[in-house]
Amino acid sequence: MTDLDPMALRRTLGQFPTGVCIVTARSGDELLGMTMSSFNSLSLDPALVLFSIDRRARGLPVWQEAKAYAIHVLAESQQAVSNRFARPGAKWEGIDYTVGHGGAPVLHGAAAVFECDAHARHEAGDHILFIAAIRRFTAKPERMPLVFSKGRYAKLHPGEEAPPLWPLDIHY
Ligand SMILES: Cc1cc2nc3c(=O)[nH]c(=O)nc-3n(C[C@H](O)[C@H](O)[C@H](O)COP(=O)(O)O)c2cc1C
After folding, report:
1. Which residues of 20-33 are buried (b: 16+ CB within 10 A; e: fewer)?
2. In total, how many domains does the chain have?
3. At 108, which CATH number?
4. Is 32 in the pocket of ligand 1 (CB under 6 A)?
5. Distance (Å, whole) CA 155 – CA 145
6. Is 0.70 topped by the overall pTM?
7. pLDDT tens across the length of the chain (172 residues)
8. Is residue 166 one of the residues assigned to a domain?
9. Which residue's alpha carbon is nearest to atom 31 within ligand 1?
């Protein structure tokens, strides 16, 4: 227990913008899919990424069995599918997909897709931290990514970005 104000904490964390992902997996006959903003890169060598799932998620026991995931970085045109995979219910009804690495369903229209093997899981407070090892990836650089900031979706303004500086001198 802490004495931090939970609403103020959520609002303050919302000052950190993220992209929006849909992470999918298959366990046995069951298709899993969940909208997540907790995705991030973790390691380049080996190539690892992370995401975290709320302990209250109905699908959590099945997520813990999954051996592979497809992580879709959503394009700005994909708010509707983001909302669909953020709600319980018929997430997969009428959704087109192909079968990717490890059987994980790969959705169409994303700005990037990382197909991964399960690598590690750690308990982390009210979430479980999932670490995934990237096995293959594709990008559609012409698609702008969907942004999530201050508790709502946002778009980048093409042309207003600073020129690319990556890799920065300060980066190793
Ligand atoms: C933009 C956005 C980001 C989200 N990020 C996460 C996340 O990182 N982890 C998580 O557990 N739930 C996240 N959620 C909520 C889940 O998508 C939602 O609770 C989940 O689909 C419910 O899954 P269930 O049917 O297994 O309970 C997010 C929702 C939205 C709209």
Report:
1. bbbbbbbbeeebbb
2. 1
3. 2.30.110.10
4. no
5. 8
6. yes
7. 579 999 999 999 999 999 999 999 999 999 999 999 999 999 999 999 999 999 999 999 999 999 999 999 999 999 999 999 999 888 999 999 999 999 999 999 999 999 999 999 999 999 999 999 999 999 999 999 999 999 999 999 888 778 877 777 777 7
8. no
9. 86
